[in-house]
Predict the structure.
Amino acid sequence: MIPRVRIEMARPRRGRRWIGCLALVGALSSCQIGLPPPLLSSLQATGEYGYADLALGDDRYQVSYLGPSQRSLRAADARKEINEAESTQAFDFALWRAAQIAQAQGFAGFRVSNVRTNVDSLVDDYYDPFYGPGFYPNRRFGGPIGPYWGPYGGPSPYLYTQTRVVIDVALLRSLDAGDYDTSATIERLAKAYPGATGSAPPPAG
């Protein structure tokens, strides 16, 4: 009878241990699958991408935007395409942040000068040759697992890039040709990048 009592007492403990483990796994999973911060976030808040601004005095600012890291093929055409897309997006978000600053201080618009673009690249040395950056069902071996890219131990076909754009901004009470209208810039970029501020885009129509 004694062994039987010990077994009956041990089972609830084992069950409680499993419940505790499952709860911990669930908590960790919920943290891992949480949505990333919006694209139009401060770099200080995300630590990986976002805007930063520096007041220079006399209604002038230096505004920068660091885009998210992107993985692409190392081929020249692929690199050119993604670099152009990243540069455009980073400039747009720097522009958007400048418009936010102008709006918060009641300025009608702003002027942009001295645009600087920098692209950092990092070769992806660890990769699975059976997975590419996208799904290509018409490629050789391109079934549900993706296309075949080469043998293990071969050179990596992938590259990580991250683009930063820095602009100088002068806030304006009145606008001249080539200047940016504050409200129009915010409206245009909000339509071009729905959800970038974290709020749901308005319904169409």
